[in-house]
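Closing statement on the flavin-adenine dinucleotide sub-project.
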Amino acid sequence: MVPLSFEFYPPKTDEQRAQLDRTARRLKTHAPEYVSCTFGAGGSTLSYTPETVRRLHQQHGFEAAPHLSCVGGTREEIRELLKLYRAIGCRRLVALRGDLPSGMGHPGDLRYAAELVAFIRAETGRHFRIEVAAYPETHPQAEDAQTDLRHFKAKVDAGADAAITQYFYNADAYFRFVEDARRLGVQVPIVPGVMPIANFSQLRRFSEACGAEIPRWIGRRMAGYGDDAAAIREFAADLVAGLCRRLIEGGAPALHFYTLNLARPTQAVLARLR
Ligand code: FAD
């Protein structure tokens, strides 16, 4: 099995915190290399990510990587967060531009993730291992795939150590992206981001927003199961496990699971891989 990492979002209520604690305990049995915690651009979860990372690291004993986005933030705010993460004991970060909620004004001091990576390196040297985002199906705002790939390379040139991809259900998009990146001289590991399917209508909404394609045949199969939740769970776990198997056979260096703070959908996939 390749190394694993699990992504969580920062809980805001006591109930959500209890759920994350349960999920973290269950997923710990899979011995992930690290876990990561998302960051709400524009300030909405500004105070929750550090608290969650501290909990994951100090209470659950994970190596924990905060996501850090630059949109809407000042250099000073980012500097403060870097100090805080150092103090918590973090040695890795996921560096992103982020997305401003629509209607929010100030874009922030740093415009793109490449500028954020350069800033983190200038401020903290090699203290943090830095992961950045990659888009096998192209970032939705990119002019075209080639330009997006050059922007991806700029993040690596600025000092990123590795990349995690947006999720996808088409393995060829990943293999082609890795091939193109290698041709451009990008050497760092490019880890596929894997989205287990827990709630298909939610997944559809997410996918429209982030530009991930759900192949038509998957939607048709899901629709065909109607309200048969057990059949949907089985199909979803088989589908995502099949994707993971192909990725591993094709040379993926690790797998990063978007857990949405749920243990079962990820565990169902991992059970099929062992
Ligand atoms: P960038 O790499 O800066 O790219 C953004 C866009 O700008 C792309 O279209 C790119 O082609 C273009 N671009 C880059 N450089 C230039 C340039 N110099 N000139 C012109 N155009 C340029 N969002 C959150 O808010 N919080 C999170 O915790 C979070 N975690 C994520 C984790 C992963 C693994 C992934 C894949 C995404 C995550 N996101 C998160 C979403 C991410 O913030 C959005 O996809 C965002 O729109 C782009 O972020 P980025 O870091 O890829 O941006």
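Residues 229-249 form the longest helix (21 residues). With this model delivered, the sub-project is considered complete and its resources will be redirected to Aim 3.
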